Amino acid sequence: MMSFLATLPAFAQEEDISGYFSDAQKYPTLVIKCDPVLLIHGDLAGFVEVNLGQRIALEGSLGILLPYYLPELIDIFDDKLTNIKGGVSYSASARLYSKKRKAPEGFYGFTTFRQRKYLTDGEYNLNNKDFILGWGYQFIPQNFVTADLYYGIGGRVKKFNYNDTRETDMGGAAIFLIGVRIGFKII
User: Which of 62, 139, 164, 178 is the Cys-Cys partner for 151 at CB 3.0 to 4.6 Å?
Assistant: First the structure.
């Protein structure tokens, strides 16, 4: 009877589970990236992606907003953006990679929260909050160099802060996101 119970689990397994125990990929992995497309819009940001498993990754960024830049399409006719002195930006993103490849390589879907705080002459400050859903493909042409192509759609909430006393909601807008991130796989 004992020998029957010992062999039962071997017959009950229908799928190959050796991938769960493979030492080929260690987690977490770390990828450091920059986005030259965001630099066109004055956002000098650095990105860090941490892969927590074969399909799940978290990405964050921190950057400075430069005073000289090409405004995004939805901001071209906004007269309050003429006296920009700079600012800060940050974002947080969750990624889910496809089953065909292991993170950080392959197709993925993502959701992102991004905030940009623009500083002006001291009269007011602009605060953009973006919520984005998107898709992308990240590949590693060399062992450590990465290229990440992505696009997404979402919404933006704009708020103005006058003299640090009151915040005024200036409405929202639809945004379309497209970009290329280039980086290095560290671990």
Answer: 178
